[in-house]
Predict the structure of ABC-type carbohydrate transport system, ATPase component.
Amino acid sequence: MTLRLENLRKRYGQFELRIEEYTFKEKSYNVVLGSSGSGKTTTLRLIAGLELPDEGKIILDGVDITNVPAWKRDIGLVFQNYALYPHLTAYENISVPLKIKKLDRKTIDEKVKNVAEILGISSELHKYPHQLSGGQQQRVAIARALVKEPKILLLDEPLSNLDARLRLEVRVFLKELQRKLNMTVIHVTHDQEEAMAIADNIVILNSGKIVQDGSPAEIYRKPKNTFIFTFIGLSNLLPASFFGIDDADLVGFRPEDAEIVNTDGDISGLVEEIQYLGAYKLLEISIDEKHSVIVRVLPSEEISEGQKVGISIPRDLMLKFKNEERVPQ
Ligand SMILES: Nc1ncnc2c1ncn2[C@@H]1O[C@H](COP(=O)(O)OP(=O)(O)OP(=O)(O)O)[C@@H](O)[C@H]1O
């Protein structure tokens, strides 16, 4: 189940996807994260075989599948809009890939019922797509992708058509499904919170290039540059000179790593705004006319707007950046 991309290139006008070399984490939940237009869907379509690369290779378990047609690849793909056939029942939709493979009726029946059981949709099989909820339609689409027992499951923005409550539920469901089937999943999203919550391995794509990969904690704690640092979670970035640091241009820190102190901290500022968020409060503190930071404190901390405060940040939690690259620690 090793999926490897080698020198992969695909150009559309000004845009170019260019992946020198990448192996997705095997039997894990991979999330490809990037903003709109970064090349996420293009990457998935190339892996699925719906597009051919201009250059490069796609290697699945040591076999070059670059020129293997989509339907012959051992890869399941779930589209963002599910793409179910409206005139077929859930059962018929799920059985389509097996009919294409010309399996006999009894084997098809067993496989469809088995996958429906795994996905918890056994009682919905007689229904047509319009009779199913969004979450159920998605499960049918996943069942259809899984029924041919692919080596890899590709999911294109699988949560974007669901409401906020269902999204949290489906996140847990997808992660459990990956664990249960012990398969390699590649899930594409622009939502950094979703990526952090669900991934074993996050692959960050920017302007058609992979800029960093790693576990959510690695990406959050050891971002390679200021783009990744500010893309993931809340972040503060100030000139290094504010801290008397001269081996970097900028210093970054997370709101939860700073502490409010009465005595002189590393820096000081004026509390401009307080957001009460239940479990914690976020303070927006201006350092000077051009720079402000966010600091997270406990709700019990007594601080008021207009108050002058010191801010202290442990040195080992400061991230030093130079010329857009992080300074190695
Ligand atoms: N078939 C195509 N023809 C022409 N241009 C394309 C085609 N497919 C993608 N592109 C262009 O390639 C770039 C990357 O598109 P892609 O859909 O891969 O991005 P994405 O990261 O998935 O974005 P989004 O989150 O908005 O779906 C975009 O500039 C897009 O306009």
Notes: Residues 3-228 form a domain with the Rossmann fold fold (CATH 3.40.50.300). The first strand starts at residue 3 and ends at 12. The longest helix spans residues 164-181.
